[in-house]
Structures are given as C-alpha cells and as structure tokens.
Amino acid sequence: MGVDCAITVCDTECRIIYMNQRARDTFAVRGGADLIGRNLMDCHNERSQAIIRRLLAEGGSNAYTIEKQGLRKFIFQTAWRLSDGRVGGLTEFSIVMPDELPHYVR
User: What predicted TM-score, i.e. pTM, was given to this entire model?
Assistant: First the structure.
C-alpha cells in the first residue's frame, strides 16, 4: 500500500529510519534510499536544525508551505512517541498541493 505524499521518519539521534517510495524518489538526487541510516541534520541548515532539536526535546509539530521545482508543497513535521510516551523521533510528511486549494469552515 502507498500514499501520495513523501514520508520520512527519523529516530531521536536524527538517523533516518524509514522513507516511503515517494520520499526516496523525491530525494533521489541526494541519495534516495541510501539516505536511510544517515543523519538528517546533514541535510538541513542551522535554523532547521534548531527546529528539529526543539521537536525532539519537546514533542509537538511544525508546519509550513514551500515551493520547489514549480510545485507547492505542504510540509508537516511531527514527533512520534514510544509506548511509554517519550518522543521516539520525528516524521515528516511532504504533500504536493494543487494550484487551487479550497478552504472550508466547518
């Protein structure tokens, strides 16, 4: 089974432990599946590294949009937790957004 977004997961040491096929394809130029086991801090600037450290220390989430290679993307980063409640690492979802995105108030 697959989903139509890129999913990357790291542990508390920032080691990439999972990338779905979409993430592997998205980051093919940087190594694709060979990124699994590598430190994701190597792929981020200082500002991003500070956010990653905060999320690993406190939990919570971080969300923003970007435009890259002509595609608008929604990026959602969130801590995942172990069964005892401790932060186990981070998951990042990268979702391509359509040009027209409806917004509803419900």
Answer: 0.91
